[in-house]
Amino acid sequence: MRLNGRSIAVTLAAVGLAGGLVGCSAAAEAKDKASVCVDALKLGGFTPDLSDPAKSVEDAHRKAEELGKLADQAGDTTLRDALKGMAQKLTSVKVSDFDPQSVQNWVNSKVSDLDTLRKACS
């Protein structure tokens, strides 16, 4: 089989296009992870209103539900696990977690969760 210049050009163009599509797929996946991370950081930035602990618990449970949905969208396993862990902790929040004696423990746990999320997003 004899190849002419046109056959070679078409073949090279097809290879280049395939490589470009693979690159686009990787870029889209990275964008999805970045998008999930941005949304997760917004949700993870939840700050309770210590003057209304009952409302803060409701807000925490709502954020937990949103984090759970976001976890389901995450393609990256480490990121998904971090989001599910954060969601689980927010689901288990109770009014007593926001009283003056306990709030520091909650804050420390939140900082740890955000650090885990930061690592999963890098």
UniProtKB/TrEMBL annotation:
Xref: PROSITE patterns: PROKAR_LIPOPROTEIN
Superkingdom of origin: Bacteria
Signal sequence bounds: 1-30
Keywords, sorted A to Z: Signal
Protein name, entry field: Secreted protein
Protein species of origin: Solihabitans fulvus
